[in-house]
Write a structure and sequence with these properties.
The complex is a heterodimer. Chain A is mainly α. Chain A is built from 16 helices and 2 strands. The chains are: A mainly alpha, B mainly alpha.
Chain lengths: ~325, ~140
């Protein structure tokens, strides 16, 4: 799809959501709809959707081992099979778990990314390319921190780790309210991930609105959140009353919360509802990737296809039993007399 | 379903983690905190609605102004003059004399832990504010 169309469609979709929330709350005073009904529907959609997707994946048979084998397979004793090989071509669950931990927590497959380049003349080189890994890891971890920091609105009393996270995040004690680095790093990382798709020709060619929309969505979330905390301000006592009402299933909508909060909440709601339908499900899907979560034991264990049709065999013994006399008459050798 | 046991365990762990706020904050949430406003003084340096949202920015400005520029006089929007001082203006005996009945109410509720008190000493509360020496006994 054309880059201009993709970008415009995705941007307008997010901008439209902002306008809907703004008009709905500022113009039509639908605080209950945007503050209670939509968040509940969104969270229900999120949970049902994710569980549904996981169950659908679980119903797909994976009869054969298809792990991506990035190193030498375990073979004859004199062929080297060290730790690197165990990790990248695991033969048992332990090494699969190690590989998954590195994948889920450290994004190792992005870290191993290489780029093909021409050297002098026809010579080609594979160069390490870590920018995607850096962008991705900054993005995911700051997003996690931002999410955990939001627990202060959803729990009373606050769990101990929220305070620790806040202290580390606001380590530099700049301005009041204290600047949390995570929000700004998150914004920068998402901007990088977006520019990467727009500026790199190869990335641009394979990018679709389904790639741009979540990026614009997260940019919208970060922008509204940062604006609300540092610039436009909102009454956080009333906000906490609302959010605590949501998690304790006794919803209340206090008066006088500024529109920016409802815009932020509406974007979050749409983000949650969009989750199961989009590429964002990789949050659950990473654990169910057969190319990552299977061990390469095809030479050690016999894997039988469970949906093989039962084949009716006619063994030689049975054949001979059936035709023994005729075979003898024709002078053919037989096993049993 | 293939590997049902493992997958259902994974789903359950995921759901338990993601619904953390719900089971952690079960039951009735605590009531909205109410701050105790001063009895005599009815006018803050800026209107209440402004202070509610932006008091931290005002105080930050005051700190920078007094500590870095040595300017201690604040002219409010309505023309009245104040000394820029957390302890002597904001928390004077006529105004928000008790940290626990004013500042802490909302800060505790929303989990805000301002570092004002790393340097400032909140006014002594109970029993007599004018003679803090007597509190030692």
């Amino acid at each position: 799809m054309n880059i201009i169309i993709s970008l415009t469609v995705s941007f307008l979709a997010v901008f439209g959501l902002v306008v809907i929330a703004f008009v709905g709350v500022w113009g039509a005073h639908l605080e209950w709809l945007f503050g209670v009904v939509i968040p509940y529907l969104a969270v229900i959609t999120f949970f049902i959707g994710i569980v549904y997707r996981v169950v659908q994946w679980a119903k797909c048979p994976v009869p054969f081992r298809i792990p991506s084998t990035c190193a030498q397979q375990k073979s004859l004793p004199w062929i080297k099979y060290g730790y690197a090989e165990k990790l990248d071509n695991p033969v048992n669950t332990f090494w699969v778990v190690c590989r998954m931990i590195l994948e889920v927590l450290c994004f190792r497959s992005l870290f191993r990314n290489t780029r093909l380049e021409f050297g002098s003349g026809q010579e080609i080189k594979y160069k390490s390319a870590k920018w995607l890994w850096l962008g991705a890891i900054a993005f995911h971890y700051t997003f996690l921190i931002v999410l955990l920091r939001h627990l202060r609105f959803f729990t009373e009393p606050m769990p101990f780790f929220v305070k620790i996270i806040e202290n580390v995040d606001g380590f530099f004690q700049m301005f009041l309210p204290t600047v949390y680095q995570s929000g700004f790093i998150l914004g920068a990382a998402v901007t990088y991930l977006l520019l990467r798709r727009i500026l790199d020709g190869k990335m641009r060619y394979i990018s679709l609105p389904a790639d741009y929309f979540p990026l614009f969505m997260i940019l919208g979330l970060v922008t509204t959140g940062v604006l609300m905390r540092y610039v436009l301000k909102a009454d956080i006592v009333s906000i906490k009353e609302l959010t605590l009402g949501l998690v304790s299933f006794k919803p209340v909508v206090p008066e006088g919360i500024s529109v920016i909060f409802y815009i932020h909440l509406f974007l979050v709601s749409v983000f949650f509802a969009y989750f199961p339908f989009s590429k964002l499900t990789h949050m659950a899907g990473v654990f169910l990737s057969p190319t990552r979560n299977l061990s390469n034991n095809t030479r050690i264990v016999r894997h039988i296809n469970p949906w093989n049709n039962p084949v009716k065999f006619h063994t030689y013994q049975a054949y001979e039993d059936e035709f023994r006399e005729k075979m003898k008459d024709a002078g053919l050798p037989v096993d049993k007399e | 379903m293939y590997d049902g046991g493992k997958i259902i365990t994974g789903i359950v762990i995921g759901l338990v983690l993601l619904t953390f706020p719900i089971w952690y904050t079960h039951g009735t949430p605590p009531p909205r905190p109410e701050v105790k406003l001063p009895e005599k003084e009815k006018k803050c340096v800026q209107p209440g609605a402004y202070m509610k949202l932006k008091h931290m920015q005002l105080l930050d400005l005051w700190r920078d102004s007094t500590v870095r520029a040595a300017k201690r006089s604040y002219v409010a929007t309505d023309g009245r003059k104040y000394e820029m001082s957390l302890q002597n203006t904001c928390m004077s005996p006529e105004c928000h004399a008790k940290k626990t009945e004013f500042c802490d109410r909302c800060h505790d509720y929303t989990g805000v832990d301002p570092y004002c008190w790393d340097c400032h000493i909140p006014p002594k509360e109970e029993p007599k504010k004018e003679k803090p020496e007597e509190n030692v006994h």
